[in-house]
């Protein structure tokens, strides 16, 4: 097998065994994609260059733990996203000093808004409970358990299209119930 035809997964396997040439090949294949992704995330070419290089250092460190549950390119972009968010967070923390922080207005909700949200939340829970069981279940799995449409289909043993249809009708019924009870769309 030539280097050009070797799969990314096989290269990660070689990296896990300490093969520096495999890291270089993966770098050549994926650096541009990772770099462009990070530029879009951060808005900074300089930051993106540093982060993209860090991604391949992480590849070197984490290769033994790569389980192959996703494509290598997806894994690398996930590492890049995490590193970009961390850098942006750190940059923001470095940028704000104590005097500036004291000048920032408190964005917390007022007691009135908190009460409105609690009332609307309680009403929404009542409306969800009043839905037919098939609609209530998909809403519960999606919004209270964070399941994807595919995962809900697997849990319920139904096609994804059926999950989507049930979600559509459940949301429609919830919207109508909220409107009839005098609640506006949105939050609070």
Automatic annotation (TrEMBL):
Q: Name one Pfam family in it.
A: Sigma70_r2
Gene3D superfamilies cross-referenced by the UniProt entry:
1.10.1740.10, Winged helix-like DNA-binding domain superfamily/Winged helix DNA-binding domain
Per UniProt, the keywords (alphabetical) are: Sigma factor, Transcription, Transcription regulation
The answer on whether this UniProt entry bears the keyword Transcription reads yes
Q: Which CDD domains match?
A: Sigma70_r4
Q: Name one GO biological process term.
A: DNA-templated transcription initiation
Q: Does the keyword 4Fe-4S apply?
A: no
* Domain RNA polymerase sigma-70 region stretches: 26-92
Q: Which GO molecular function annotations are given, in alphabetical order?
A: DNA binding; sigma factor activity
Which InterPro entries does the protein's record reference? RNA_pol_sigma-70-like, RNA_pol_sigma-70_dom, RNA_pol_sigma70_r2, RNA_pol_sigma70_r4_t2, RNA_pol_sigma_r2, RNA_pol_sigma_r3/r4-like, WH-like_DNA-bd_sf
Indicate the segments forming the RNA polymerase sigma factor 70 region 4 type domain, all copies.
123-174
Q: Where are the transmembrane segments?
A: none
- Which family is it part of? Belongs to the sigma-70 factor family. ECF subfamily.
* Protein name, per record: RNA polymerase subunit sigma
Query: Which source organism does the UniProt entry give?
Result: Mesorhizobium temperatum
